[in-house]
Amino acid sequence: MYNVMKIAVLSVLLWTGAAAQHVLSGSLGRDLAATQVEGAALSAQPGMHADASLFEGAGPAEKKSAGMAALYSLVLPGAGEMYVGGFDAGKYPLIAEGALWLTYGTMQYYGTWMRDDARHFASVHAGLTNSSADDQFYVDVSNFANTFDYNEKKLRDRSLDKIYTTPATSWQWDSDANRDQFRTQRVSADRVFNNARFVVGALLVNRIISAINAARLARQFNRALDSGLGAWRVESSMLGADGVQVALVRTF
User: Fold this and answer.
1) 106-145: pLDDT as tens digits
2) For 234, phi and psi rounded to 5 degrees?
3) pTM for this one?
4) Measuring CA to CA, which residue among 210, 199, 206 is closest to residue 105?
């Protein structure tokens, strides 16, 4: 089961890296910006309508704030890209976020189950009664056959503040084999919790990558607006008795 958990963690981390490489590709951002601005231009032409999914609201396209895009993605990966209009880019960090949280929750549940099972084993074979003891206490239980041996070692080390003197902190293993088995179970549970920290790190990295990508897409979108892909408008003028002249004008 533990090997399956390691494979799952590695798979999620590799998938997150692949998604990050995809959303940070330059061609994706350039295509997004060009598509959005062209859609905004078409929306201004008489009788023509751009796809509403390309940008928010009707009317001319407005510049997007790179800072707001980054902030949205820091709160929820993918939200900044969707704010800019790039759902195709934002779905990857959003899916990665869900997969990472699922992995973290599974590892926390599995690690807790392993830890509780190990401590129950110790209560049966070492006579432990203190279920609220800290982790260090269980480390000491796994390293010494009984409380007397542990206290003797601390007295020789002159660590009087670390000796156990109450009945709730006393133990006596029924065999060294069971003590070794408990140590193995305890270490395995700790390893699962330690690996869960890597998932937390991946969650932070996923947010940073999404924020950088969202800010980049916002800047590309704004540069496209400033580069002359701007809006179209209809101008009309009277030609005297001959009629009305109608012109389609593109602004630069």
Assistant:
1) 999 999 999 999 999 999 999 998 778 899 999 999 999 9
2) -100, 130
3) 0.64
4) 199
Q: Write the CB contacts of 217 (distance below 8 Å, at least 6 apart in sequence).
A: 29, 32, 33, 69, 80, 81, 84, 86, 89
Domain presence at residue 231: yes
In a domain, 197, yes or no: yes
Q: Give strand pairing partners of 250.
A: 232
Sign of CA dihedral 162, 164, 170, 171: positive
Count of structural domains, the chain: 1
Which tops the pLDDT comparison, 7 or 163?
163
Q: What is d(CA 208, CA 90) in angstroms, rounded to the nearest whole number?
A: 13
Q: What is the CA radius of gyration of the chain?
A: 32
Taking Cα atoms as reference points, which of 78, 43, 3, 56 lies closest to residue 229?
Answer: 43
- Where helices occur in 76-175 by DSSP H, the ranges are 79-84, 87-126, 135-143, 147-156
Domain span holding position 239: 2-107+192-250
Nearest-5° Cα angle at 69, 65 to 73: 170
Whether residue 161 is contained in a domain is answered as no
Q: How far apart are CA 50 and CA 42, in angstroms?
A: 6
Determine the average pLDDT of the residues in 204-222.
93
Is 79 a member of any domain?
yes
Q: 40-72: per-residue pLDDT in tens?
A: 443 434 443 434 344 444 345 688 999 999 999
Query: Cα separation of 141 and 179, whole Å?
Result: 8
pLDDT band at 87 (very low <50, low <70, confident <90, very high): confident
H or E element at residue 234: strand 232-238
Taking the C-alpha atoms of residue 205 and residue 136, their distance in angstroms, rounded to an integer, is 31
